Amino acid sequence: MMSKSTLLKVILLGDGGVGKSSLMNRYVTNKFDSHLFHTIGVEFLNKELEVDGRRVTLQIWDTAGQERFRSLRTPFYRGSDCCLLTFSLDDGQSFQNLANWKKEFTYYADIKDPDSFPFVVLGNKLDIPERQVSGEDARKWCRENGGHPYFETSAKDATNVASAFEEAVRRIQATDDRDGHLINTDTNTVDLQRKSQPQHSCC
C-alpha cells in the first residue's frame, strides 16, 4: 500500500528581481531561464519529494514583488505552511526590505504567533561575484528576527536550492509532529491552516 502524501504550501516572498521565479523553476523543473519575465500576481508549481522518509507534495507559490501587485498577491498568503523570505545578495535594498515582507506576510496570512511560524531566509544570486550583503549580516538578521535558517542560493547553478526547500519541509514537519496532526492529499478537501509551537534555530 502506498504511503499517504502530505500537501504543504510554501510561499516565496521578496522584492521583484531577486530570483523567486527562477528558484521555483530550478527546484521543480531543474531548469534556469535568464530571460524570465516578472511574475504578475501569483503562480504556483507542485513538487513531490521524500524528506526523512515522509512523502510530501510541495505546493510552491511565487508572488509578484512589485508594490503595485500587492492586492493581487496578499489574498494567497492565507493557508501557507512556510514562508521563504528571499533577497538578492547583490542588492542591499532587497535585504533591507526583508522585515517589511515578513510584516506584510504575517498580517495578511493572519499568523497568530509569528515567532513560531516557520520562515526560511534565502540569499539568492550567489553566482554573482559583486555581492552587497555579507553572510555574517544575513545570519545576524536571522538570529535577531526569530532564529530563522539561512541559505545562500543560486538558481542559475542550483547551489543550495534543494537544500533550502527541504529545510522548509523539515520545519513544517517538526511543527506538525508537535501538533500531532498531518494533512494528506488522499482527501478531497485540505485544511492548510495550522497552529505552530515555538522553534528556534539558525544555520
Main CATH class: Alpha Beta
Q: What is the fold named in CATH at topology level?
A: Rossmann fold
* CA distance, first residue to last residue: 37 Å
List SSEs in N-to-C order. EHEEHEHHEHEH
List low-confidence stretches: 181-203
- Helix proportion range: 25-40%
Oligomeric form = single chain
CATH architectural label: 3-Layer(aba) Sandwich
Query: Given the structure, what is the number of helices?
Result: 6
3D structure, described in words:
This protein has 203 residues and is of the alpha/beta class. Helix 5 (135-144) links the parallel strand 5 (119-124) and strand 6 (150-152). A six-stranded mixed beta sheet has the order 2-3-1-4-5-6, with helices on both faces. Mean pLDDT is 84; it is low at 181-203. The protein has one domain (6-179): Rossmann fold. The longest helix has 19 residues, at 161-179. The chain has helices spanning 20-29, 70-73, 92-96, 98-108, 135-144, 161-179, and strands at residues 6-13, 42-51, 54-63, 82-88, 119-124, 150-152. The protein has six helices and six strands, in the order βαββαβααβαβα. It is globular.
